[in-house]
Amino acid sequence: MSSSEQLTSLVKCRDVAESMGHTVEFIFPVDIKKIPKLDALFIRANTDPMNTTYVASRIASMYGVPVIDDPKSIQVCADKINMYMHLMKRNISMPRTRFLRKKSLDAQAAASLFEELGSPLILKEPSTSFSARVEKVSTVSELLKISRRFFKLSDWIVVQEYIESRFDWRIGVLNGQLLYACRYIIPSETFKIQASVNGHIVYCDVESVSPDQVPPEVINLGIEAGLAIGQGLYGVDIKECQGKLYVIEVNDNPSLEGGEDLHYPDMYQRIVSFLINGDSLSCAQCEHAKSLSPALEADYALGPNAAASPQTASAGNSAGCFKVDF
């Protein structure tokens, strides 16, 4: 998405938080020393254990400051092998998946993968994001060539069966509850939601879908997949093919600026409530949240000397302060 759309999303989030009685401040990496004094931190930048965002998340966690995304979610989702193993442990429906080690790569092993999983195959470098380093291969020579490129960045790669679909369900999950649902319509030029085609970046179209129009089994699978990672904010990508559902991946720090909230006007209210109160309000409760006084919100404020979780925080005397980092 363009920076203007991201900025619009941040401004919308700020306006909602302020309507709920909170003070909002945009902070940057140079402001990282402020984190222990915040009441909550909402990270809206690319999360990765090698980025400043992870440092910010760790600092917030250490000081008992509620944070999205939390360090564990960043660690798990930044490594697709780790993420898929969490899904496998919970028996979440997903494409047949194998982890290919660098030392085991040869033509015979590649041919065996096609025999087992079919053709084409999807190769993923484990640290990929925004569809980068995700490729479709149909021959042994293609698999070997792309695998060797990915192995320059990682000792392992992910190999999956290809699931044909013209759109992905994106199920937003917060604290084990549905936050939003939409379809990512895959561009006809590619099989990914984002790709470089003839030197130009093409993006998927985002189609927000009201809750009553989303199959219950899609919502349930999205929630189960999110809970396999944790209790935070996740975007779960699900493909539907021949009557079966497959979780493609679980993303921490999911996109919120593409129109995902069209049928979910309470989306930001629920995120703010989760950060400040430790819960995610239902749609009906969100209307009530607007009437909460700053004094009541202060009961949930956290500071540098607070306990490690919102449930054990002592009450404050000032209005809750909701901070945004991007």
As a percent range, the share of helical residues equals 25-40%
Count, helices: 10
Strand tally, please?
15
Low-confidence stretches: 282-326
- Per DSSP, what share of the residues sits in E-state strands of 2 or more residues? 15-25%
Mean pLDDT: 81
The arrangement of helices and strands along the chain is HEEHEHHEHEEHEEEEEEHEEHHHE
Order of strands, widest sheet:
12-9-8-13-14
Write down the overall geometry: globular
- The whole-angstrom Rg is 21 Å
Termini separation (Å)?
Answer: 15 Å
What structural class results from the helix and strand content? Answer: alpha+beta
How many separate domains make up the residues? 3
**How can the largest sheet be summarized?**
5 strands, antiparallel
Structure overview:
- The structure is a single chain.
- This protein has 326 residues and is of the alpha+beta class.
- It has three domains: 3-69 and 282-325, no CATH class; 96-161, ATP-grasp fold, A domain (Dna Ligase, domain 1, 2-Layer Sandwich), CATH 3.30.1490.20; 165-252, ATP-grasp fold, B domain (D-amino Acid Aminotransferase, Chain A, domain 1, 2-Layer Sandwich), CATH 3.30.470.20.
- Helices cover 32% and strands 25% of the residues.
- The protein contains ten helices and 15 strands.
- The strands form four sheets. The chain has a five-stranded antiparallel beta sheet. A four-stranded parallel beta sheet has the order 1-15-2-3, sandwiched between helices. The protein has a four-stranded antiparallel beta sheet with strand order 4-7-5-6, sandwiched between helices.
- Helix 2 links the parallel strand 2 and strand 3 (67-68).
- The longest helix has 17 residues, at 3-19.
- The model is unreliable at 282-326 (pLDDT under 50).
